[in-house]
Task: structure prediction
Amino acid sequence: MQAKREKIVILTGAGISAESGLGTFRDEGGLWAQHAIEDVATPEGFARNPRLVHDFYNARRIQAAEAKANKAHQALAQLQEHFPGEVVIVTQNVDSLHEKGGARNVIHMHGVLEGALCATCDHRWPAPDEMEPETTCPHSSAPSARPDIVWFGEIPYAMEEIEAHLSEASLFVAIGTSAQVYPAAGFVEAARSFGAETLEINLEPSDLANRFHSHRFGPATETVPEWVAALLT
Ligand code: OAD
Result:
């Protein structure tokens, strides 16, 4: 009988992209201090003022396109390549910096800035650099293109797949997330209930720090490569 391969499930948040120049949401001066969530990150806000919402995501799309992967993204890609078991990366981030750093099969549970979604027929296509209320869907021709981003009040993507991975995880690691947004914030408890060890890597203890078995605190570009190096040697 073959031994079960170890599986590491990694959840990342805005903190892993902070040193690439992309702002986090809840740190001082973060995105949610500058914009009202209900205006730019809810279906109701989009219905009220689609231009405002498109402007917000157009600016973030341009910024993310210019950003480069940092040492933390690259270290996770190295881990995926060299770890003898399986490494699953689940991200709440809508940038593509994990992919730019070389990671594969990243699960984007909150969607992607590079994607457009038709609010009429659910068709998806690569987002143009700039979207506006008049942008039409190439499938339905309806002028109802929206960013392919999961907003508050909507169900994140790939939840069944993520839960299946968590149920098989030997180690669950949360990196650069404040653990304030569910369902992602509930993954540590789910992983523990399935018997996984849990590790938090963050600038500082998150609200759920005491639910993790172990911790590494500091900037992701230092802590993540150090952890990966320790794991691979
Ligand atoms: P937050 O902005 O809530 O939290 C970022 C976390 O990263 C904080 O705990 C910081 O301490 C940490 N951090 C900051 N700089 C760091 C660094 N250089 N190295 C390591 N850690 C660092 O972002 P998220 O937890 O990702 O959802 O937010 C979760 C979700 O809330 C987002 O996906 C977004 C937001 O509303 C939607 O828009 C649907």
The first strand starts at residue 7 and ends at 12. The mean pLDDT is 96. Residues 13-15, 18-19, 24-27, 30, 41, 92, 110, 150, 176-178, 180-181, 202-204, 206, 219-220 surround 2'-O-acetyl adenosine-5-diphosphoribose (CB under 6 Å).
